[in-house]
Amino acid sequence: MSTRGTGALTIIVGLYTVLALAAGGRASVQLADDPGHAPFAYGLTAVAAVVYVAGAVLLRRSSERARVAAKWVCIGEFAGVLVVGTLSLIERDWFPESSVWSIYGAGYGFVPLFLPPAALWWLGRVSHERPSAAGGGK
């Protein structure tokens, strides 16, 4: 098995895990405290937490099926960050409180904006290495 890219994978999965915990905690507190104040933003934060958990789990798996699923999760996540980021700038009334993806993840150091492309880059590298590195294993 190839060890190329395992450091990058560790960082990427670590960031997904941290964001999952941060978004999950934030959504839990917001929804428990005052769910009616900003239901759209709070709901998006909860969705983001689920996406980050899925990303972390799928990226760690070595099967081709998991890698394909991870790719689609990352693509959907990136689209979500771009759409929510843009809407949070255009439709400010929809976001009386910010979500994880508001203003492209500004509240999280823009990590939500850069993490999906980084994960897709890693998945692309691994898919090119896969046939010779894994020996066809599942």
Brief digest:
This protein is an all-alpha fold and about 140 residues long.
Describe this structure in words.
With 138 residues, this protein is mostly helical. It has one domain (6-128). The chain contains four helices and no strands. α1 (6-33) runs antiparallel to α2, α2 (39-60) packs antiparallel against α3 and α3 (64-90) packs antiparallel against α4. It is elongated and about 50 Å long. The termini are close together. This is Integral membrane protein.
Task: Looking at this protein, list some descriptive labels.
elongated; 73% helix; mainly alpha; 138 residues; 0% strand; 4 helices
Strand percentage lies at: under 5%
Report Rg.
16 Å
Overall average pLDDT: 89
* Strands, count: 0
Structural class: mainly alpha
- Tally the helices: 4
Which residue ranges are poorly predicted, with pLDDT under 50 across at least 5 consecutive positions?
Answer: 132-138
Distance between the termini: 12 Å
Principal-axes geometry comes out as elongated
Question: Largest sheet at a glance?
Answer: none
How many structural domains are formed by the residues? Answer: 1
- Proportion of residues in helical segments: over 70%
Protein name: Integral membrane protein
Organism: Sporichthya brevicatena
Keywords: Membrane, Transmembrane, Transmembrane helix
Transmembrane segments: 40-60, 72-90, 102-123
